[in-house]
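Hi! If you just cloned this repository, the fastest way to understand the data is to look at a raw example. We've pasted two of them here, unedited. The first protein comes first, obviously.
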Amino acid sequence: MKEKSFIPFGFQYYRSPTPYRDQWAMDLERISLNGFNCIKLWVQWRDCHPSENTFIFDDIADLMDLAESHRLKVVLNVIFDVAPVWFYKKYPNSLMETADGTVLKPQALSYRQIGGAPGPCYHHEPAQREKDRFLMEAVKKLGGHSALWVWDLWNEPELTTGIKRKLAFENQVCYCDHSLQAFAVWLHKKYESIDALNLKWQRRYGDWSEVEPPRGQAIYNDMVDWRLFMSDALTEDLKRRIQVVKALDTEHPVMVHTVPSPIFNLITAGSDDFMLAEPCDLFGNSLGSSAWSADLLLSAAGGKPVINSEIHALPGTTALKPRKLNWTELKRHVLIPLSRGILGYLFWQYRPETLGHEAPAWGSTYMDGSETPWLKEMAALNSTIQLHGDRLTESTRPSDGIAILFSSENQIANFAAYAHLDTYNDSVQGMHHLLHDLNYKVEFVHDRLLNKETLARFRCLWMPYPLYLNRDLCKIIREWVANGGILLAENSFGALQAEDGTHSPIVPGYGFDEIFGVRETWIHSVEHLDHSYHEVIAESRIAIPIASLTASGTSDVTLEGSYYKTDITVRSDVDVLAAFAEDGMAAITCADYGRGKAVWIGSLLAAAYERNPLNGTRTFFRELLQTKFGLTPYVTIEGEDGVRGDVLSWEAEGTSGCFVFASNWSDSDREVRIRLPKPYSAAACWFADGEGTLESSGGAESCLRVRLAPGDIQVFTMCAGIEE
């Protein structure tokens, strides 16, 4: 076998000033003795750069020396959203400004205890140069240390470090003069002529200096541009940091770790995982323990190595104490991302926090640094993973050829239309939820990165509530369907046209009425306005019953939609697969187009599934995808719903095998059979509390029978041939 690759398993350790220096030696020795191999240290701008020409990295260097003596690798997490006091005095015009004119003055937060948050405006060039200078000094001082593993150049990229995270028009940044001038430059580069901008925005500007950024709910195209501009500001800031590091340190990789959508959004956070992952060597995130965030993270990484940079296993505050971490929950935090191929786990954090509102939570130890039961279980789990490290690092997860469109522009347009993101987020997450429960490997494609080559990798594309689309994207999708792709999309396809921001007179738009074979004639909202001054928020609290149809036309399985019920005309050659229970209007249709298929759904069905995951919805789409379209998951489950199976496979040195992950997402015991399309001759469970039997290994497939308690996840090593 080849030399074992490094799988980091450890803790966030130091966010100055805690833990205190007299605790370091004991803590790092215990971390090492328990078999962990990695710690993360914060390098904070305010803390390490206390005056304009003074840089202090002694605490970080001493900790790295200790780490090296205990054979621990170090992640250096550089924190710029805590600007020094001297900086604000020297550059008082560097502060960010919100849409309602609020100036964000430096302050301490429960998670930025030393003050200085949220840092300067991203378009204040002197601030960028000062950040460059600090980072260069940090790399010169610490970049040559043998304990260093990776530079993590941004902890959870976000525009205001959480100060204005709440989703609201007035919380948008930045409206200072620096950003407004930069926005005009960004628009000029994108549109080249003021006439092109006027066509897109439907304005009559005479000069770029006249451009006004949107501040409230009005039209769509200006808001889409405005938020993409601020999201690009985060990405460009990260690229600048990477350039600084790589100019001085060509040995160590660079990364960033994010917080996944929908917690961070493109409106007030500005964080786009796909854009931020692109310039990095590896990628990570916080809150990566769920199937949703793990799948999104891997898709954004685009094949680059991925780690869980912050596992939030014991969250809490002074008021809301953390729950004790049990073995089943611990396994899920690690094994759900591992089942997808994420190889790296850092818990937030080693000791409980002692300073500020986050105390006394988050600890893997007790307050005095002594071992907890869950710390011992973390050590045992790490030991098991490292035992299989060689095979894990060479394993891959087969694709099922199914993708969900993750659209930055549609997300922003949804906010502009609804003043919330429930329609977008519930629809995207609901589609993932449904495909996850049907045991497909779920992948995402990003609208700004989508091209013919990317789409050609997939057999099936799901488009959640595709309200806002553009001509170029639709052309790519149209050609893909004609060449054999299977498209599933919800109502209002391309209703808002990106070219000029107007509502299409024909929906589905961009000629897709021909592809779906339907034309929307009216959309019934669950909520309505009584008059123009009536304030009503469109919500998804009322289910819209949908009945599937058999060949004879009778109702069979019940599904649910939400938000809207759409009236349509249906072309004669189009199959009606389901109807609205209220009046029998076609609710789900399927049309042939070229060599492909196009399924239209007349309600926000995915959003309904996210809130109420009906068995009937799973039954309907399992039949549609597997029987009608032949889209069978690589791993199939026989038995009651409620269990998911994932696999990481390897082939090397004349042997082959896989790791099978069986996860019970239901609230009751389950016994199922997991079928794999390859023959294996042996199966062994990783954990003593696991129960599984290899029932058959003849022919071209294998069948593993497993029993699982509610919420449990088990792992089995399956082999064909003899392992050396």
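Ok, and the second one:
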Amino acid sequence: MNRRVFFVLWLLTWWVLSATAETLTFTDRESWSTWHWPAGMVQIDSSGLRLTSFRREIDAIRNASSFSHLTRKAGRVQGGIWWAGSNPEEAELAIDGDATTFWRPDPLDDVLKWVLEVDLGRPVLAQELRLRFAEGGDTRPFRQFSVFVADGERAIDSEDEFRFHQVYRTTLPNERTLVRIAPSYKDDAVTRSLGSSGFDEERESLYRVVQYVRVVADEKIVGGALAEVEVIAAGDNLVTNLSARGGSLSSGRLVRKAQDMVDGDMDTYAIVSSEPFRSDLTSGNVRETDMWWQLDLGAVFWVNEIFLGWQKRIFAGASAGTGFAVMASAGGRTFADQPDFEPLLHEGDLQFNRGYSELGQSKFRYLFKARKIRYLFWHVLDKEGWSSWLKEVMLFAPGYPAEVVLHSDFIDLGEATSEHRKYVRRISYDGDTPPGTRLLLRSRSGDSLRVQYVFRNRRGEPVSQHIWNSWPKVLKGRIDTTLSANDSWDKWSSPYSTSGQSFLSATPRRYLQLELALISEDPQQTPALRWLSIEYSDPLLEDVSGRVLPRRVPVNEETEFRYELWPRPSREDPGFDMLQLKTGMRVFNPRAETAAGPPQRVEVQGDSILLFTWPCAIRGDSVTVHFSARVNRYAARIEAAVGNSRFPGVWQEIADSERDAHTLLLPDLPKKTRLLADITVVPMVCTPNADGINDQVHISFVALKVDNPKPKVVITDLRGRTVTDISMMVQAGVLEGYWDGLDQSGELVAPGIYIIYIDLGTESGSTRAVRTIAIGY
């Protein structure tokens, strides 16, 4: 008795444990940290995982410390206070965002030391400088002062001395606590509005490239104090951190030092010059001129501004040919696997770099209605006459990116258990998708990974394994290991349409990976994902494979098929008691054979789905199924899965026992010229009098060699006048429709003979047919 009770309890415990699914959830900053996305494009806050907004009209000082750059003397430095001639200990108070704190020069210092210099960490398009002075108590504004700015271009190449330009000087003693300064160029800049941009072109033309701001007191004043320096700039430059985001820059050979145009340094430049290679220039495709560059932003952005900053070269011979053009792509590809570029701007009447007799313009700002851009392609209009330096390229966005793609790590479902393969049941998630936004989630799975090694020297540079092995230990650097999907992985699945949807990739598998796209059609809105979970359990069988025979069959002829499957269970697998075959065809005479006996029930669902149920679980016995069907689609695939009634909703896919073991081929199909087959009209005489006998006509036919057919079926009278159109639906590979004897207005037609016209609407092959039908009462 005790043994029996123990056995029952053990069996119940095993059943409960087997039925319990495990869940892997991503819900907080730590769990999301295992995912990968372009740097700076996604943030995690209380609303979940969401896109990062790229701002317009920013105070560039607020995040100056987030940027760094190389100097001649101090190495790499962060933005912030560059130099304070007096009281440097309190200089940071002038850029801390708090108007109640301030930098007050030491009254004992000479007025020549009453100087404060701020480094923004990168060049920005400054539209306004604001100086906020302290007032109250023993503090007051500077009375006489000057303001200078520099874009980062050095006055002496070997020193950290920059070319400053005065943009403001008091003419009367100042008493204001807020001084606004427009640091715009006089005649060096061009601002163009392309089409209906929505920008105020006159307002946007007042700007200047600024990285350093110098405030100089021209006279001492008791209690003089500067509370805040603010630099109102155009926005966040999308080109910043380009490589960290996965973006890149490529160029033709006549654009040298191209990386210098996106390095955030106005003292460096790319050289666009045809001089050294005039004899080598060719004509034709714009890439063949070798005077082009292409920018990959690393993600799809909404972009509404481009800035090109050229060097004003003051010597004879400098020129820009006849101009240039810029094209843009949102990321689509052509048949040649190149970005599908479309024209963005055309600059054919340049006035910069004309030599020292006429300085002209060198700063070009283009404003346009926000559009999706991932790739930007710049090229010359004429290959001759170019000798120019492009110092910096900037792009700006009006808000959130258009699309950012994230990938999970390779998730090892069997890592913590002895069972290496797991059955993934479903993917669930919760998030917010405001109007114009969406979340796109896909999956893929596999049983193993490809391991790749990168050998490096002491400087971190990659070298071959052979060279690395030949070196002494002192010369060897680290070995990096990377993992990638191998041939055991399937392709990315279709997108998941709802939370809790069954897993769409192959399962059971050892590994899986998820891909998530955050998409916004409105730059002012972002989707957010609060959490995502993967529900998985032990598989019904460690492995199960199958095949269908024959696999090369005649077109649209009834064929006897045999389906065979072989389970390979592990010791504790529960096995299966249900077999499902989705054929996509009308099936007849289904039956099954197995050593465990015949199935308890055989069902045909929707004419094309076979479901076999056995009274007890099958673990190691093979199963053979017989059925008849007509195949009219090339490369039709049988979808096969096993289930267990103890685990509702769990269907384990049956793998191919050999290559294309579930695919049916029609070798004679290409020879077919008549694309309509098996046309039936039943009954030939219709009596729509509501007596339940022959009240409607059933029209059916098969469309060969046509994917997603959309036939036109029309009923006319003998004079050719249209009576009504018939809607056709696909059922198990057969197109079906019904006519109830009514015309388009819903009235019964008169007795007589009517014509049925069928037209597949394809451009080749015989695609039309005509039949007649009689209506009587």
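That's it. A detail worth noticing about the second one: The radius of gyration is 37 Å.
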